[in-house]
Amino acid sequence: QRRVHGDTIKKPNMLRVIGIVLAILNSLAALNSTYFFLGMLKVSLKDWILFNSCAPSIGIYILGYVLNCWPIMALSIPMLTFFGVGGLFVFGWKGQEIIPQIGHILMTLALGWMWVSIYTEKLYFEVAIGFLLSSVLVTNFIAFQQRYAQTHWERFMKMLQFSPPEKEPKKAEQIFSPTTYCNYLF
User: Fold this and answer.
1) Burial class (CB in 10 A: 0-12, 13-18, 19+), 79
2) Is 86 exposed, middle or buried (0-12, 13-18, 19+ CB in 10 A)?
3) Phi, psi (deg, nearest 5) at residue 165
4) pTM for the full predicted model
5) Where are the alpha helices (DSSP H) in the chain?
6) CA–CA separation, 137 vs 56, rounded Å?
7) What's the pLDDT tens digit per position in 121-152?
8) C-alpha–C-alpha distance, residues 95 and 136, integer Å
9) Tens-digit pLDDT profile for residues 80-98
């Protein structure tokens, strides 16, 4: 806090603001990838969780963030590290692969934010509880997910080659007609 003319003005905690922004951006990235897998590819819930493990990882992080529960957030650290940071080295950096890479970057930034918060807030005990839980839950999930992805590798690669069906190009008079404009608005 700093004083200005006898009044106390609270300045926003920059770490808190960064945390809010990262939580929102990671939520949007998770929703986007969830829409891609469940909405566009129409995969099963099992395939979504096991082929798009970034979204459930972010979900655990967001749950811990919203509940302000550091053991839950710490539970997400190994998952965000494996799927987020690791994803930076698995996916390419061209074309459609840029979209998941943005999510991986956001997951990596969330990790950095968590480590800085853990250090500055001295949350060592809470994080230790989360790491103990993750040593059982997360390691087994990652092992199962990797085995599943290996045994279904061809199907996963086919999913990554997805391209939405192209629409027939419209003629200029269809693009600029009042009817088209009204249909677009309503």
Assistant:
1) buried
2) middle
3) -60, 135
4) 0.78
5) 14-34, 45-51, 54-67, 70-79, 86-90, 98-121, 124-151, 153-160, 172-175, 178-185
6) 13
7) 899 999 999 999 998 889 899 999 999 988 98
8) 37
9) 999 999 999 988 899 888 9
